[in-house]
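Today's session is about reading a structure prediction critically. Students often jump straight to the picture, but the first step is always the sequence itself: look for stretches that repeat, for charged clusters, for runs of hydrophobic residues. Only then move on to the predicted structure, which in these notes is written as discrete structure tokens rather than atom positions. Here is the chain we will use throughout the hour.
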Amino acid sequence: MKDIDDATALIAAMTEAARAAAQALAQTPAAAKAAALEAAADALCDSAGTVLAANTQDMAEAADKRLSPAMRDRLALDAARIAGIAAGLRAVAAQPDPVGAVIAEWQQPNGLRIKRVRTPIGVIGVIYESRPNVTADAGALCLKAGNAVILRGGSESLHSSQAIHAALLAGLRAANLPEAAIQLVPTRDRAAVGAMLAAQGGIDVIVPRGGKGLVGRVQADARVPVFAHLEGICHVYVDAAADAEMARRVVLNAKTRRTGICGAAECLLVHRAAAGLGQTIVDDLMAAGVEVYAEGLAGTRPATQADWGTEFLDMKIAARLVDDIDDAMDHIRRHGSGHTDAIVTADDAAAERFFAGLDSAILMRNASTQFADGGEFGMGAEIGIATGKLHARGPVGAEQLTSFKYLVEGDGAVRG
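Below is the predicted structure for this chain, in token form.
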């Protein structure tokens, strides 16, 4: 009980500080927020050695805990990844500030002038696993959107996240912004997660980023709204009209570039009329070290029912022949997660049918599902890919972390 009480008190204190910071951020000029992010990027580059040392400590603990290769890949940092995180901070800094942007405006016959404008949500809670870069991405995006944020990273990435968070705090100090604008929960105590989920009136929305277990718990237990990112069960459908070399290149990249990210392809569907091409692609995958669980194609082993709808996050993929595009879409509807699905085809009508017939957050044509990323969409960074139907869908960037309000002006108008 003491741990729960301590966690509740900790989160209560953090949310109180965050709400005060959010009030200040709602009125902070765009230039000050951009300056904070630029200074944070500078601080991160200057402290790269410290960040790498912290990550080495996390990686050693991950080895002791025998975390999966995919989890260790998400956790690992090197000089290039740190440079990428810093570049992401600068990209967010350079984006137009969403706060105050006019979404729509009109005038009523009675003379009222009405604007719908973007406004910060308030206090965002972000709960994530293993990826220390989310510390920077989430902190930057929430700040850009005028929100305060409380970050609860995975216990396996605590040292790395703390080192990155220190750079964010340096950026806030350099711009004379409140340090409570970006807070990191300083404990591995899981009770802190429960306290965040119960923080009605303190946290305005929770954004979970992690595996099915984490997101399922957040959705089941949260008493505040949630931007859900459940699983990345991404499909690539190779149509009868696919260019062979393009299909081979796209599928191999979609599966193997990085297997541990949510945009990695987990299922290959091939039109029966392109079975020869499908077999060539399966051979390509196996030659690259991928285990292919296949139906109608010669893979590593025959597919089982359990393989459909599985997020492998590994050098594994399910594959099957389908009768036509309708059969492919039916499979995706049954087994997909609404994240990202792609078609490879030279047939415009087939692509239009695929785009109209599916309701995944991201649909692609002739492109690798690995592009399902806020940075690749020009957002600078993202907190995650939201697969729900309300408010934010797809990459959650700064604009998606705003709400809106109406500004109404009159000239002494009264209603009869």
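Discussion point for the tutorial: The first helix runs from residue 2 to 25.
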